[in-house]
Structures are given as structure tokens and as C-alpha cells.
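ok trying this again, last paste got cut off
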Amino acid sequence: MGFHTSTIKLADSRRHGAGTELFIVEGDSAASAVAALRDSNTQAVLPMQGKPLNAIKAGPAKVQAYGLFRALNDCLVETPTADLFASSAPRFERIILLFDPDADGIHSSALMLMYFYQYLRPWLDSGKVELIHAPWLQITVAERSEPVYAYSEAHSQALLTDLRAQNVACQIVRYRGLAGIDGKTLFEKCISPATRRTRVMSAADALAAIEVFGGAPKRAAPVK
């Protein structure tokens, strides 16, 4: 099933509840790439359009009117109410933040964590929000059957420095967003629960993001 709130379109999963997850990605190209490879029975995809609103600095009325947050709230439970976590069984067991491996992706992750901290805190406190680090660089080494992946610019520089010190020949592919990652790698490293690497996010992660990007947390009214 698919539905939309304003211009934010959800590629829904066929099942909901236990064992299901919602990917939040950057833009329609990333959403199309992930939706083409996902398990449509258990995995849904919601695209952002641009960077998320800073929910710490923005007032409640602006947050409530913001399209992405309204779309997210609408698809989290069958009948949205003031308490989007406890009012009814959540439609998804967990939420996966999957953004491009660059500065914009890091910023978007931080802004989404700030929204969860301010308005959907039970999802963070119950360990239901996870982050996937998409690969930044693929390094193919002639003497190895499987490529090596770097997950940041610093990580890639460290790997390449080590390989060059060993005088090892290698080929490099720099990924330009999720849509630029080949299907096999995107599936294995970002989509498949059996092979991807995720990190459970917490209120502490959100507070670290707030310290860098946000301002002072405030007491918030629930988003309706």
C-alpha cells in the first residue's frame, strides 16, 4: 500500500507490527533505489525532501505544520493521536535512518534525532530508532575476493594510506548518495537485516546532536 501526506509519499509495507521497519531516506531517488530492493512485506520507505526542520529551534506550530513530520506521524500508527507511541500498536517495530554518507547526511540524521527527542521520545527510549552508515567508498583489491568499504572520508584515507604503504594495487569507487550505490552493495550494506550494520540511537545521541546543531531542548506539546 502507498499513501501520501502533502507531497511526501510512503512506499508502505504489506505487513505491519512485529518484524517490520520504516526507512527514512533523503529524497525520491534514494527512496526509489531502496524501495526496489527492500522486502515489500516488512519494509516501508519514506523520503524526505530537503533537510528536516530543526525541531528544537522551531516553534510547536511550525513543527506541527511541517510536511515530513506530519507524514511520519501519520504512518507510525493506524489512528494518530496525541501520544503516537502508546496510544495504539505502532505500525512499525522500528525506524531506520538511512542517509547519504556525507556532511548533508550527517546533518539530516542529527535533525531527525532532534525531532524524535523533542516529540517522539518514547521511540528513542525504547531503542526503536536505528541508524545505518551507508558506505562512502568501495576499494577493490586485486588479491582479495571481496571489496573493502570505507564509511567516512577519514576512514577511506586511513585504508588507502595503509594499502599504498603495502604497495597494493586497488580500484576505488566513490559513492555519490544511496542512488549511486550498486544494488548488491546497497542491499547487503544498508537494507538486508542479515548483513547490514546498524546502531541503536538513544536520547544521549540526540542530546549530542542538539549540542552541535540545536540549542536548548524545551518542553514540547505532542504533535497532532
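PB: full thing came through this time. The two ends are 23 Å apart (CA to CA).
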